[in-house]
Structure formats: structure tokens, C-alpha cells
Amino acid sequence: MRGPVALLAPAGAAAASALAWRNNALDAAFYDLPGLSAAELQALGRSRHDEGSVIVVDPDCAPGDMPALRSFANYDALRAAPGPLVTQIAVAGVGSSGIGAAALARTVAAVTSRPTAAIVAGYGAEDFMTEALGGFFLFGAANRARHARQTLRHRVGTMIAESPQTPALPKPLPHEFATPDVATLVRLLADPDRRVDLLVGHSKGALTIAAALARVMRTGDPVTRAKAARAQVVTAGAVIAFPPEIAWVTQLLGQIDALGALNSRIGLPHRRVPFAGHHLNTAFPCHLDLAAELRAVLNL
What we know:
The protein is of the alpha/beta class. Helices cover 42% and strands 12% of the residues.
């Protein structure tokens, strides 16, 4: 059973706590939880997924309703696991727990028919306010500072590093790359054996992706930078600045997404999705249908 009412109901001993119920409720409000099976929801609800952990989600639910997902505490655990290296990464937004992260990854995996790694960007309802302030506002300020530096470099050209007459660039904010979700994504992008083809971010997850790509472009070796520049990026619920090297970027914003618009750079190229809000749960009205948008963007 995958209806919205069933998804919000606590399942199993661990999910019986009020905290687990609030996490499920918050994730159900924003993400397409109907894409996860009851067994997967129970498996995710039984364990805490810390920020920066990874959940690899297969395209479809496994036969017999068994969970078609694998959880890893960090990048090192993921890298040590046998099997092909995942090439698609999804990062959910403000307040998302492992359930929301996995639901977003399942949406991406179902569209592309390929496993997708979800990077957990928050703990759920108990961290919603912290994530909201530290996510959109801090990351948004960092993104604006990066964009200002990029614009200034473009205007003054190569003389910016040589001339003492050139105005100083804004310095990065101290926590710009400090969060565990950004660190995990940087390591995935820098993996010498991995090719990252697709990055999908929702809300604060888009800012996480932008911060990680900026770090790679600033500190990575030429091969790593070239690989990262070839990745296709799709964001929903936040219009933000990306490093100029990242040429393949599609940004989606719902026509009635007040939260996303408040934290977006509206002057940057993006597409307004008619009658869509901030949430991606297709069971609720005025959702942004991410699956349909991805099919159009990826020509699938």
C-alpha cells in the first residue's frame, strides 16, 4: 500500500516514535514517497541517516516488496562496496531525511532506468529550522558571493590575478564547503574511477551541488575539473549560480513556488513550471512533476 495516508502512518518499532512520524510527514509533504515500497519505507525508517551519508536506489522496487536500496554511512563505505560505480546523484532539500533523499533518487532512477545515489542533506523535521536557516540563507549567501567573484573575473580578465590596482574579490564564506553533504559530493566528483553523468538537486540540494562543483573547479586537478564540467545538472525549487565551466544546466521553478522564488536568482536562466509549487509529491495538487520534467530535459 503506497497511498499518502499509509505513508504518513508510523511503521515498525523505530518509526513509532513521534520524531520518526514527523520526519515521514515532512518528507511526504515535499517528495514523491509513493515511488517507494512499504518495505523500503520501513527499512529507511528503522535507521538514522546522518547528513552526508549515501543511499543507492535502484530504478524499481524489488520483487516480493523487498527494499531495492542500499545505505552507506559515508563516501568511504560506498566506495568500498562491490559492483559498478553509480553515475547519477540526487540531493534533496531543506529538512529531508533518508526517506526524502531516497524518494528523490527513486524519481530520478525510474526516469533514467539507472541506479541513483542519494546524498542525505538533513535529518528531517527535527532539523528543519536549522536546515532552513543554514541551508537556503547561508548557502544562498555563499552562492551569491561566488557569483560576484565569477562576474568580476569575467569583467577584468586575466589581469585580476596580477594587477594590484584590481579590486579585491569577495572572500568565500567560512562555512561555504564545510557541510558533510557537500564534502561527500566533492569526493564523488573527485573519484578518479567514477564518471558522474547527472546531478539532480531540489531546494537546498541544488545549493549543495553548486557548492561542491565550485569547490571542484577551484581545487580539483584538470582531469577532475573536466569530468565535472561534463555532468548534466538539473535543479528544481531554486535558481542559483553555477560555475561558468558547468555548461549543461537546467533550472526549474514552479510558477507558484514562493519559497523557491524567495531564495532564487530570478535573473538567471530558468524555466517556470505552470501551476507548480515547491513540492514534488505527485499525490498532492500543484506539485512540480519532476519525472515529466526530467524526461523532457533528457529527451527520454
